[in-house]
Write a structure and sequence with these properties.
Blueprint lengths: L5 H5 L12 E2 L9 E2 L1 H5 L18 H7 L3 H27 L28 E3 L3 E3 L2 E2 L12 E5 L2 E7 L4 E9 L5 E6 L11 E6 L7 E3 L2 E4 L2 E5 L4 E3 L4 E3 L2 E5 L5 H6 L11 E2 L28 E3 L4 E3 L10 E6 L2 E3 L2 E3 L4 E6 L2 E6 L10 E5 L9 E3 L2 E4 L3 E6 L9 E4 L5
Length: about 425
Amino acid sequence: MNNFSPRAIRRIGPGLSTLSLFLAFFLAVPPRFVLLAGDILRGGTPAGLPHGSGKGNPTAAAVQAGAPSATSTLARTTQALSAVRAMQAAARAAAMTGPNNLGADPNHPGQILPNVLDGLATGGLVPDSGLASQGVANAVTSWTNAQTPTQTSSGNNTAVTVVQTAQQALLNWTTFNIGKQTTLTFDQTAGGANASEWIAFNKVNDPSGVPSQILGSMSGIGQVYVINPNGIIFGGSSQISLHSLVASSVPINDNLIARGLLNNPDAQFLFSALPIPAGANGTPAFNPPPSNIPGGNYGDVMVQAGAQITSPANADNVGGRIALVGANVENDGTITTPDGQTILAAGLQVGMAAHSTNDPSLRGLDVYVGQVGSYAGTATNNGLIEAPEADGWRDGQPTGLHRQFNIRCSQWPD
């Protein structure tokens, strides 16, 4: 399958036996109502209600009698959320004093990931132009609309800044690892009032096959894409604050970068680990770069417990987006997208399209997963996704959707 359409993907029928199916986990519930995923995965039945018996469905009176009160449900939900937040805080505290690597290397069994140094350093942040010395990058020549990264230090803290000079920038890195005491800032202030529409595409080509390790902080007022086919791991000490973050281990379709991400007349997948032929409406063919992982697989995107990934809303209550796209995706940390959208999408082909304007009740992007192959397609959330006034999607193959334990969200305001 080389392209997608809402009709082809959503219809369930015999024809889908030749396609890779997906399930979309979408939340739209009354404002300030807390929803536990277990209730959804049981077909929408509130926790504590029977699902019927061999003697028929329960009567309305029986359901009412067996239903927990709103007060008790709210109390249990509040306690559950408090427990999850306490667990996240403990995990973060442990990560802050833990090692400078994120543990076992998922791409090289039996090996430990290398330590991450702070700032512009070998094993840390290294543009494809290389380093003149530790803390100093050689002038970048392949980057477009972004200046060579610079570094400053204050005490134990290291700041690396990339100044973006136009609405769309392309940055190439040999390694994209952020040390625990490092803050990487994308300075997108030249965008002024439209800075939220500025995009910095960061493409990583690390021949070692090791995933990116994010132990420190990343900030910006626009959109930041990090694309590393080796995978991306956000450690428990990481703190991300961006209008929008897209972290993907599935190669991004360069055709759509050139045309505009949603200017997609041939419905090509935005992310694809598989070749895409040219479209009838003029979109060129896309051939993804090969994986550097032994065996040729593409990596996963993982968020460890304690990590904090946030897309803050602006003064007009317009939120951004956090999208994790990978062969497999797992969130064990905290993702917060007030007035925005959270996406966990797992597979070897992922498409995105603007939600139909004919449906004013929802906003944001629709997400489609194509082929998943033999090793991909599992999207897992064991962490906390907080999306007040927002929505969330969790996509993968039917057998690859693991239980979503804690999600707190509400629908868009009227």
